[in-house]
């Protein structure tokens, strides 16, 4: 099972540093509320993107899941639709949520 903390502290910052135009392309502030895996902000409105622990004042998209469900999603991104249908994953903006595929791939 994927390590959620490692995804936000290592994988995602590394990906954004390798592909700085990705932040400009998506241009969204994401708030991840992941229960026991913590709260994380992915701000793709700033140059190069920023990933930090905590909460955003006015996110464009809020993603909610239990830590274990988000870890399962990281292992198998194709499971997102099933997780949405079963309410294991909640996304406040589906259009912004679809752009997350670019971060997970």
Short description:
The protein has 105 residues and is α+β, with helices and mostly antiparallel strands.
What does this protein look like?
With 105 residues, the protein is an alpha+beta fold. It has a single domain (4-104), classed as 2-Layer Sandwich (Nonspecific Lipid-transfer Protein, Chain A). Helix content is 45%, strand content 21%. It has helices at residues 4-18, 21-26, 67-75, 80-85, 94-104; strands spanning 29-33, 39-43, 50-53, 61-65, 89-91. It is globular, with a radius of gyration of 12 Å.
Low-confidence stretches: none
Principal-axes shape call: globular
For this structure, what is the CATH class? Alpha Beta
The CATH topology is Nonspecific Lipid-transfer Protein, Chain A
Q: Roughly how many Å apart are the termini?
A: 17 Å
Domain module tally: 1
Q: Please work out how many helical segments DSSP would assign.
A: 5
As a percent range, the share of strand residues is 15-25%
- Rg, rounded, reads 12 Å
Query: Main β-sheet, in a few words?
Result: 5 strands, mixed
**Strand order in space, largest sheet:** 3-2-1-4-5
> CATH architecture, please?
2-Layer Sandwich
Helix content: 40-55%
Structural class: alpha+beta
Q: Quick one: CATH superfamily?
A: SCP2 sterol-binding domain
- Mean pLDDT score: 94
> H/E series, N to C?
HHEEEEHHEH
What's the number of extended β-strand segments? 5
């Amino acid at each position: 099972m994927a390590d959620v903390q490692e995804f936000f502290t290592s994988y995602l910052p590394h990906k954004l540093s390798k592909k700085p135009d990705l932040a400009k392309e998506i241009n969204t502030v994401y708030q991840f509320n992941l229960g026991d895996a913590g709260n994380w902000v992915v701000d793709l409105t700033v140059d190069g993107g920023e990933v930090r622990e905590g909460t955003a004042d006015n996110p464009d998209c809020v993603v909610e899941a239990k830590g274990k469900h988000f870890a399962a999603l990281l292992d198998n991104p194709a499971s997102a639709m099933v997780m949405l249908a079963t309410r294991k994953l909640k996304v406040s903006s589906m259009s912004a949520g679809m752009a997350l595929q670019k971060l997970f791939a």
